[in-house]
Amino acid sequence: MSLSQVSRVIKPFVVAVKHIFMTPVTVKYPYERIENVTGENFRYDPKAGIAYPGFKGRHVLHLNKCTGCSLCDIACQNISEAITMVYGFNVFLHFDKAFYDALKKGEKTVVELMEALVDSLSPKQRSEPNLSVSHPVIPVAWSDIRSVQQKDGGYEWKLNLDPIYDYRSEAVIEKHFSEFLRWCSENGWSVKPITVEGADKEDEYHEISRDDLKIRLGVVKIDEGKPQNKKSYFPSVDYGRCVFCGFCVDACPFYALEMSPEYELSATDRISLYYDPKKLASPPRTQPPAELGWFERLQLILRGG
Ligand code: SF4
Ligand code: SF4
Hints:
Blueprint: H1 3-20, E1 43-45, E2 50-52, E3 59-61, H2 71-77, E4 83-95, H3 97-105, H4 108-121, E5 149-151, E6 154-158, E7 164-166, H5 169-176, H6 178-186, E8 190-194, E9 204-210, E10 213-221, E11 234-238, H7 247-251, E12 257-259, E13 274-275, H8 277-281, H9 294-302
Antiparallel strand pairs: 1-2, 3-12, 4-6, 4-7, 4-10, 4-11, 5-6, 8-9, 9-10, 11-13
The structure holds iron/sulfur cluster (SF4) (2 copies).
């Protein structure tokens, strides 16, 4: 074998060994990550009319700037309908002393009514979202009857633990209470919508009565106390639909919406991809690198990491 033939055999091994000690250009994700620079996000300056190029990750909503004008929602409508403008709601069940005493005594009709309510509120399985609808129903965390408190000479049970975000109070009733109200109508209780003095026009109340027993189901809008957005009307984003085009950011005239470098948005269920206004307003997450095993550590050392 000639010297040049030996050299041709050895050369690839030398190149391979050399590369073990070279810093690679590829990133060993998730053990390594490119630094998450918050300033390098895509944003739009409406006064200057300039869109700054940058990474289009998860949106960040500035609640103190958003006026609830809906322009981001309108911009998204012809793209993917990922944005829904929503109000936050609390749901209260009011009952008077007669109803409370009947409940305490265990009167059959009253106990059956409360059982029907509690059964209808059972959280729907997160692993079984209804995929036949384009916008999934977001499950609600419900409180239990121990949170009943005395109020205005009667009693009040705040049913939801966290705000329920939806575009109308009617939608809250339809999604979470229609089964209960149907049960009431079919089991001798009278159900009628009522108006309550001083209520917001978005609030919705239903009176449920039978003989001298009466309760009131109220879906009450939450006032977020933002002076520039008196309606407390904010966008929410469904990342199961968003294509990260940034048109909504371009459309916002109040510097209230920008995109962040947060890209780790994957989830194992459809519901977790829904970001309500509070979640959208949270600062972008910068995940720490995954825990390294001995093999990954050795690889990083050999690669000059
Ligand atoms: S970035 Fe997402 S939410 Fe915004 S307009 Fe595009 S698809 Fe809609
Ligand atoms: S984020 Fe901007 S465009 Fe969207 S509702 Fe708020 S102010 Fe209007």
